[in-house]
User: Which sequence fits this backbone?
């Protein structure tokens, strides 16, 4: 925990003079998504509050916000922990993704579409794979789907899916072989992008629907095995 707190202190400058629980929750959400605080980690009020230079009340409000987003869990007489998802949680995340992401693609309207950020996410994933950084490939994959959702031009949808993708990262952090998990989707992201570049949103939706079904099966298989191993005596 000491190493994490030292790094977290570097984020204090992000708070500026207008330190709020929302800004603290933004920082912690990003750190959790990056795997800085892995699932199951107990978050120290004193340590984190001191590293960020915020009051206990502000930090508790930030914890409350992130608990509402299902990223943290409060355990009576034990404290606040980064949530460990169940298999049912993972399945529900993918149901939500399929409902929202496929609907976004279906509702795009007539081409051309603003695909610069989506294309950049594909390039980001390729570069990370070339560097053999498979956790970064996972991050690029999240960026791809975040930018896909952003094509809807809806702040409310972006906010909803921000929490969903953050939860998804909790599952990814449990997986012990990110290479095997993420590599197949580099090519599939590119195929979806190329379909949209051609203006064929129906083909893109079909590819996305199959993608999410296959990804769910792969993640649940690995996640069920890992969670089972971790809980074994």
Assistant:
């Amino acid at each position: 925990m000491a190493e994490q707190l030292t790094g977290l202190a570097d984020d204090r400058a992000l708070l500026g003079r207008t330190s709020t629980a929302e800004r603290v929750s933004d920082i912690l959400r990003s750190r959790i998504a990056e795997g800085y605080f892995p699932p199951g980690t107990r978050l120290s009020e004193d340590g984190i509050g001191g590293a960020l230079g915020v009051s206990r009340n502000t930090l508790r409000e930030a914890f409350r916000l992130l608990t509402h987003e299902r990223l943290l869990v409060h355990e009576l007489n034990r404290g606040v922990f980064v949530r460990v998802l169940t298999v049912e949680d993972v399945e529900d995340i993918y149901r939500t993704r399929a409902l929202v992401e496929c609907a976004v693609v279906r509702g795009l309207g007539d081409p051309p579409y603003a695909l610069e950020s989506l294309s950049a996410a594909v390039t980001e994933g390729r570069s990370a794979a070339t560097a053999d950084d498979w956790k970064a490939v996972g991050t690029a994959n999240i960026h791809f789907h975040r930018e896909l959702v952003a094509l809807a031009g809806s702040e409310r949808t972006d906010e909803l899916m921000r929490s969903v993708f953050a939860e998804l990262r909790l599952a990814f952090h449990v997986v012990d072989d990110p290479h095997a998990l993420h590599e197949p989707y580099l090519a599939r992201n590119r195929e979806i992008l190329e379909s949209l570049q051609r203006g064929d949103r129906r083909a893109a939706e079909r590819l996305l629907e199959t993608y999410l079904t296959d990804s769910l099966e792969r993640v649940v298989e690995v996640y069920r095995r890992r969670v089972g191993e971790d809980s074994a005596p």
The longest strand covers residues 72-75. The mean pLDDT is 89. The two ends are 25 Å apart (CA to CA).
